[in-house]
Amino acid sequence: MVEIVTSVGLPIDEKLMIKKNRIMPEGSSMNNLKRISVVTGIHGDELEGQYVCYELQRRIDEEKDKLSGIVDIYPAMNPLGIDSITRGIPAFDLDMNRLFPGNKDGNMTEYLAAGIIEDVQGSDCVVDIHASNIYLTEIPQIRINELHADTLIPLAKEANVDFIWVHGASTVLESTFAHSLNSIGTPVLVVEMGVGMRLTKEYGDQMVDGLFNLMKKLGIWQGEVAGVRTPMISKDPDDVSYLNATASGLFVPEVKHGARLSEGDLIGRIVDPLCGKILDEVKSPQAGLLFTIRDYPIVDEGSLMGRVLKEEVLVNE
Amino acid sequence: MNKKIIYEIKGMYRDDFRITGYEFGEGEKSVCIIGNSRGNEVQQTYCCSQLVKKMKQLEEEGRIKSGHKILIIPSINPYSMNIQKRFWSTDNTDINRMFPGYDLGETTQRIADGVFREIKDYEYGIQFTSFYMPGDFVPHVRYMKEGYTTTEDAKKFGMKFIVERTVRPYDTATLNYNWQVWDTKAFSLYTNTTSRISKTGAGQAVMSVMNFLANNDIIKYSAIGEKRIRTIDDTDLISVRTAKSGFYEPLVKAGDRVDAGTPLANIINPYDGDILETLYAPIEGIIFFIHNEPLTYANTAVIKILGD
Hints:
The complex is a heterodimer.
Chain A: E1 2-10, E2 14-23, E3 35-40, H1 48-62, E4 70-74, H2 79-83, H3 108-120, E5 125-130, E6 136-145, H4 149-156, E7 163-167, H5 177-183, E8 188-194, H6 201-218, E9 232-234, E10 240-244, E11 249-253, E12 260-261, E13 266-272, E14 277-283, E15 288-294, E16 298-299, E17 304-310, H7 311-315
Parallel strand pairs in A: 3-4, 3-5, 5-8, 6-7, 7-9
Antiparallel strand pairs in A: 1-2, 2-4, 6-8, 6-15, 10-17, 11-13, 11-16, 12-15, 13-14, 15-17
Helix pairs in contact in A: 1-6
Chain B: E1 2-9, E2 17-24, E3 27-36, H1 42-60, E4 67-75, H2 78-82, H3 107-119, E5 124-128, E6 135-137, E7 140-144, H4 151-154, E8 161-165, H5 175-181, E9 185-190, H6 199-215, E10 230-233, E11 238-241, E12 246-250, E13 257-258, E14 263-268, E15 275-280, E16 285-291, E17 295-296, E18 301-307
Parallel strand pairs in B: 3-4, 3-5, 5-9, 7-8, 8-10
Antiparallel strand pairs in B: 1-2, 2-4, 6-16, 7-9, 11-18, 12-14, 12-17, 13-16, 14-15, 16-18
């Protein structure tokens, strides 16, 4: 059943509505049912979660009798952003993922954020699906704030991702959707996969398998599920090397995303199309997995071109 | 005066990105003044240009006291100004959310780092900044209540209003916050406008900085500031919110004194002109902030009033 989670009138003959679809076992009451919430579209330019929302429902519909809990699907937290290919909230130029937990008495954006938190809180698990940004492609991964690692790592292991990245606490990140809910006891897994403005169907299918597995563990799904992969887990900031551009130019990759690299392997070149010169050769600083690669070819000095997860973490997989 | 490049990045097809500073006097790093960090902060750069002009005059007249160096950086983001975009030209990040910066990080982290290395050792830091919402302010000086900068320091600007800001999580990557972490007494100067030039507002800003420099014995200048200075907490401002979206018709302006019950603005149906809502002053006081765009959303604090 499609419901309006929260809404607000826009100036000229339009209402901004944030919608969800609630799927429940037929004929059951809500009492004592476990609930999973699948959330996406906080950043309007990240679309990988759109396919996951569709495919999850398509597969539930095929075996609706196996559903034993509530699945809430929130495909568009930032509908104006999705519609206008805008990462933040249009007109406000605000990152929606810096507004939580919001404020019912606050401005329009804070009001919407508060309405979302009120609706999602209490879920037994929330999966917040992001798609990196328009610049970088990511392998399917879950990012966890170290403050909530004990609760979230066991859940994340069930989600069929390739990588779990536990990162340090940062005050700036306290205003994210995930942190706001994790802080009040509603567990949120933040998925990053693929790239902005595009769909990567195989990642979406992998994520849907993971969601079914999570639902099975939580008692929301009684049907068969595919086995899940064992993720690599990194808790040490030194596990990851960052490749930042040393010059402005055109980044031309020489390896594929997900490549296994030895130290010194050529990852790509920054070239100058005006003069036809190579400005820099981007080499791997350590042996490992190229889990992030730049998709958007123009780089400024400092732009991130990739990340390498060191070999030792891969060995532990 | 010494004009120097503070930070530079080579452009691909654009001219190189350059941050330019103007140094006056010699000696201890006394005061650093920063103009815009966002592309729409035109007034903030204009204020700095007027300050550079004034400081040149003071220097020529020998009125900068010995042992003091003053650095003015009119813009730390000329690239965004030139394309009339508020945030960074390629990835839309906000340089004023990147401090203290990181020299090996992403572009705006590098810019923040490059600027911060040059400015972190000053005793006082002044940043001309803007509110995240479009609107007009009563000019005032703000500082973050972290226990380092004090109201006594802020009074030296001689401005009528001082606003103490309680630090929010998202403030921790701003220049003002990080200046204080590195032992610089930091202030944000809010002039009346952002994307339009106000000569009077800029004149007031120049005068307040002159007062500050004179009261700290850095320049020879007869400071004439406000006699009655009021320090308020940012939570003391009473927000007047819209319940409806529509055309926004203000009936008052920033700085006006209003009685409780004064009509402040109408929200108008954009198709038939009906008044959907009239906003009234809930208390007697001064219009401290007022939204200045023709459209408004519902639930928006379009006006902030400072009660007596």
